[in-house]
Amino acid sequence: MTRLIRLLTGTMLATTVLAGPVLAQTSAGPRPAETKAANAPEQKPAFANQTRAPQPNAMPKIATETVAEDLPHLWSMEFLPDGRMLVTAKQGAMHIVSKDGKAGPEIEGVPDVLSAGQGGLLDVALAPDYQDSGRIYFSFSEEREDGNGTSVATAKLVADEAGGGRLEDVAVIFQQMPSYDGNKHFGSRLVFSPEGHLYVTVGERSDPEPRVQAQDLSSGLGKVFRIDPAGKAPADNPFVSTQDARPEIWSLGHRNLQAATLDGQGRLWTVEHGPKGGDELNRPQAGKNYGWPEVTYGVEYSGSPVGDGITAKAQTEQPVYYWDPVIAPSGMAFYDGDAIPEWKGAFLVGGLVSQGVVILHMDGDKVAHEERVSLDARVRDVKVGPDGAVYAVTESRGGSSTIVRLTKA
């Protein structure tokens, strides 16, 4: 572990004595950030800047610093009120990372998780009343008698003086159903709305047979859910009164949602993994259908069309933005800080394949510019810290993780 120093502000994480590289971001003009050939070049966007939006004319120089390294293979991170970070490891452990970048002992009481394939201990979020209740919510891949699926649990986090702690009063409050005996496309991100409801994003389990259930309201595959803190469907959910529909569903027709956040107005935005091409930025709205697998950009991994190969249909929503080739999104934040003023009001999206942070500068509900900061590593999660800096969890495939701090140079 790199030796770290204290920052002047007590709520900020410490950073390494030696700063990382300064990433030049200057005067790119209208050239898009993505210049590689598309997998489906015959597919055309439905409107201007729906893909390959131009870079901003001027971009800040970004400095990177390592704040923690040699961590287990992480999946998510969340800032605690005192500036420490709560992190989840794919294999099923939860840790508190101290302000000097050291991971404490494994937190006791985490339920067993299915960590094969794309499964594991997934996202974690603090309850809106965490300061008083100490409660957290987390998603994980759960082994079941008839298969497996994504589940959401809540517990009280009780930290100890050794930097570890335990979970008390653990309860699974929601299960994605039906179960399926596979190891792909579990999702999942957790986002609390301003009203205190919990959005839960999941995948459609990837394989040809179950993925079609993304269009089925009686199935919980390929959906965004909206539940209350006890795991129940709020009375104003769009399909509460629809026969045979799962009442927790908020929106449908999604593939594999691993990025979600609220914007400055408290509205949910997501980025989901597409096929070979077709990663999507969406603003999921109540009751709306986002197309998968009947309508999508991109192609199958084999190169053949997905379904009928159509990219638009009257009954489905167009993505706000899409990528071909993919960035492989994972982790997302809305930037409302002051440390990097050029990014104010932008979405920050982690890229596994693009190996960096993708910055989407918005004009209303459309993308005006796309900017990228390369970190030369797969980015699993992105958060804005209490200091206004951007924190990215990077990973080596199947190996350890590092937490990197991004600031304006």
Question: How many helices does DSSP assign?
Answer: 2
Low-pLDDT stretches? 1-19, 24-28
Radius of gyration: 20 Å
Strand content: 35-45%
The CATH superfamily turns out to be TolB, C-terminal domain
Overall shape: globular
Distance between the termini: 24 Å
Helix content: under 10%
Average pLDDT figure: 93
CATH class: Mainly Beta
Explain the overall architecture:
This protein has 409 residues and is mainly β. Residues 1-19 and 24-28 have low confidence and may be disordered. The strands form 7 sheets. The protein has a 5-stranded antiparallel sheet, with no helix packed on it. Helix content is 2%, strand content 38%. It is globular. The longest helix is centred in the first third of the chain and has 4 residues, at 130-133. The chain has a single domain (4-408), classed as 6 Propeller (Neuraminidase), CATH 2.120.10.30. A hairpin with a 5-residue loop joins strand 12 and strand 13 (198-201).
